[in-house]
Amino acid sequence: MGIGSVVLLFWLVRFAERQRLATTCGGYEIRVGRTGGVYLQERDIEKWLDKSVRWKEGKVAELNPSLIEHVLGENPYVAEAQVYFTTDARLHMDVRQREPFLRVYAPDAFYLDETGRRLPVNTAYPCRLRVCTMEGSATEERLAQAFALEKMLRRDSLLDAMIDQMHLNRRQEFELIPKVGSQRILLGTFDRMEEKLANTVLFYRNGMAQSGWERYAVLNMKYKGQIVAVRR
């Protein structure tokens, strides 16, 4: 009896699976997960899939969730995708959006996402990000340094609100351009960057508060243990 029950259960499962595969797809649902702005919407996913894969019409057996996942993964704004059928034969797509983090001009424009990977600019969804301009090529090392500097700026509320742009010249030296005032903040190469940013915050909270925003043309943070301020 035990063996018979197992065999019966096996065939019932096989029969139910055949019935499910023969069922016509009962519709679909797309859910986009995001932590920031909107740079990928459901209609974008539909258009992307329509170009290269069968995904919303036909029998369940004729639609391939793994293939649909693969096609979604080729979309530059998709970080992760899970595609599956539920018991009511509806196709579900759970998609996580890649988030632009820093805009780079080197000289072509692109984004770095929240993991530091390149992300093409989508003109349909403009976003407000700090800008990094670069002289010379955008090598992986230079992009990694710009990405790390952006994370440091975001961790400090004053710098995050104050700095509008960063620039990396051919000598591998960073310069910051603030929103208020017309100073140039010279940071130099990436070494001791945490210390240089701390000195910048210290000067803005103390020196600038006493002398005014327009007194200095250049703030040089390159040198260890000192700040060199050049008057206008």
Any overview of this molecule?
With 232 residues, the protein is an alpha/beta fold. The chain folds into two domains: 20-97, Ubiquitin-like (UB roll) (Roll), CATH 3.10.20.310; 100-231, Rossmann fold. Helices cover 34% and strands 27% of the residues. The chain is built from seven helices and twelve strands. A nine-stranded mixed sheet has the order 6-5-4-7-8-9-10-11-12. A three-stranded mixed sheet has the order 1-3-2. The longest helix has 21 residues, at 2-22. The N and C termini lie far apart (97 Å).
Topology readout:
Layout: H1 2-22, E1 28-33, H2 42-50, H3 65-73, E2 78-85, E3 91-97, E4 100-105, E5 109-113, E6 118-119, E7 131-134, H4 140-155, H5 157-162, E8 163-168, E9 174-178, E10 184-188, H6 193-205, H7 207-211, E11 216-220, E12 228-231
Parallel strand pairs: 1-3, 4-7, 7-8, 10-11
Antiparallel strand pairs: 2-3, 4-5, 5-6, 8-9, 9-10, 11-12
Which short descriptors sum up this protein?
Ubiquitin-like (UB roll); about 230 residues; about 35% helix; Rossmann fold; nine-stranded mixed sheet; three-stranded mixed sheet; 12 strands; alpha/beta
Q: Under the CATH scheme, which architecture of the largest domain would be assigned?
A: 3-Layer(aba) Sandwich
- Mean pLDDT across the residues is 88
Tell me the number of strands: 12
* Structural class by secondary-structure content: alpha/beta
Précis, in short:
This protein is of the alpha/beta class and 232 residues long. The protein is built from 7 helices and 12 strands.
